[in-house]
Amino acid sequence: MTYKTSPFCSVWHNNEPYFFIDQEPLPTKMEAEFVIVGGGFTGLSTALDLALKGKEVIVLEGGKIGLAASGLNGGQLNPGFKHNPTEIINSFGSNIGKKLIEFGANAPKKTMSIIKQHKIECQLEKGGFVQPAHNKASLRIVDNRVKDWKKYTDKVDFLDKNEVADLLGSDCYIGGFLDRRGATLNPLRLVKGLAKAAIKAGVRIYQNSLVTRVYFSSGKWHFMLKNSSVQGMAAGIFTNAYTNNLIKPLKQTFIPVQSFQIATERLSKEITRDLIPNGFGVSDLNRLLVYYRRGPDNRILMGGRGTFIKPKSKGDFVLLERKLTNIFPILKDAKFQYYWFGNVSITPDFMPRLNILGPRAISFLGCNGRGVALSPALGPYLSDWLINGNDHRLPLPVSKKLKTIPFHFLHRLYVAAVSSYFKARDWVD
Ligand SMILES: Cc1cc2nc3c(=O)[nH]c(=O)nc-3n(C[C@H](O)[C@H](O)[C@H](O)COP(=O)(O)OP(=O)(O)OC[C@H]3O[C@@H](n4cnc5c(N)ncnc54)[C@H](O)[C@@H]3O)c2cc1C
Question: Which among 242, 253, 251 is positioned nearest to 406, based on CA atoms?
Fold first, then answer.
């Protein structure tokens, strides 16, 4: 059976068989030492590592593997966080800052090594990550970024106007940042591949198993579902931008934002000859940024921030269509075939959050659009923490108290206000 197609089917899901697990439904009562909630990159990579260390693990996935962000994203395996290394040191201090920088920088490599170790066929193509500059303000960002990253790696370079035009096939930029540690892949194949490897290693994954409440009592974690309950000694809550009220007030610690994506029809080799080579992911430097790449079957994919409510029709994606044809006028007659969307979790400082929720319980969220590299790479660290509970071995700072966003219930208004402000600033710049 294939993933259910809808007007908003992604380029990755079309005709792809859904992830099938040949097992009994979740019994009404069950127990395992390690219980993971969320079957995306984070949950599956953690569960896989635990099972490889001989641990007994259950994954509870509320929907189907591949139907949340991990299966719907743009497949850009980008290094680092949103911030430059110096900004990270300034915010977190030298010790934690250096750990963060090293983890972010090596995350694509670590994720690629997991892909290799488990022979996951996910159309991985090594190329690079490009951030092109469209005006003087963004050129200054590029210049700083190159100088800053050069202190840590020789894999980054400044691209002048001609070099960007040659690489991307667009004349609308005046320079750019190139990071050769980046790559692209098919995210749905990656998340399914992780699930397959996890099952092979002994993990029991239950799809359509939405957890409605999690609590700690009598030395155990209790996971409540509609018709079942599961108990465990250690809990990983990896529900990211799809977090419900399972454990309060986790949902109030980030803002869920919809990211929209489009993909063209298959294009002829003549049209795409000079456009973005395979393996390169691109993300511009507007405050309301767009990201794009070449996709399967010679298509061009573009994503960006969507509307505040779920799209009703393909008309809601018209701004992305316009943006793509402005950047690549050669695509003006190209037809768009795929339109889809998913949730991204945004935090106030654009940095991810590791929250300790109680004895041997941890959550990870807030990848701010960088989770393709960060989430699978973090899995082995999360697994280590769930076994040993040693905070110092984690590559990110941990928080022992959930920091909620004030007036979170107004988040739609926040997003609307910030988007309008960003749009105006982008226009002024
Ligand atoms: C459209 C889009 C484009 C993106 N593009 C990129 C990109 O190009 N590069 C990049 O680095 N990042 C990108 N991202 C971000 C990236 O996809 C995420 O950071 C990453 O997939 C997060 O993985 P995760 O496992 O933490 O969360 P998810 O993949 O969201 O998985 C969480 C899972 O938890 C399940 N769940 C939630 N609540 C419950 C519950 N109560 N009980 C049981 N299960 C539950 C959900 O069903 C879901 O399967 C993009 C995201 C979107 C939406």
Answer: 253
Is residue 28 within 8 A of residue 227, CB to CB? The reply is: yes
Query: Do the beta carbons of residue 255 and residue 248 sit within 8 Å?
Result: no
Q: Identify the segments of the chain with pLDDT beneath 50.
A: none
**pLDDT of the residue at 310:** 82
Q: pTM higher than 0.90, yes or no?
A: yes
Q: Is the CB of 380 under 6 A from ligand 1?
A: no
**Ligand 1 atom closest to residue 293's alpha carbon, by position in its atom list:** 8
Query: Does residue 39 line the site of ligand 1, with CB under 6 A?
Result: yes
Q: Cis peptide before 249, with omega less than 30 degrees from 0?
A: yes
pLDDT in tens, 67-81: 999 999 999 999 999
- pLDDT tens for 17-26 read 989 888 888 9
Decide: 14 and 317 in contact? Cβ < 8 Å. Answer: no
The token duo for 106 is 């090596």
Backbone angles phi, psi at 77, to 5 degrees: -95, 85
| Domains present along the chain, CATH in parentheses | 1-125+185-254+346-429 (3.50.50.60), 126-184+256-345 (3.30.9.10)
Pocket lining: 289 vs ligand 1, CB cutoff 6 Å = no
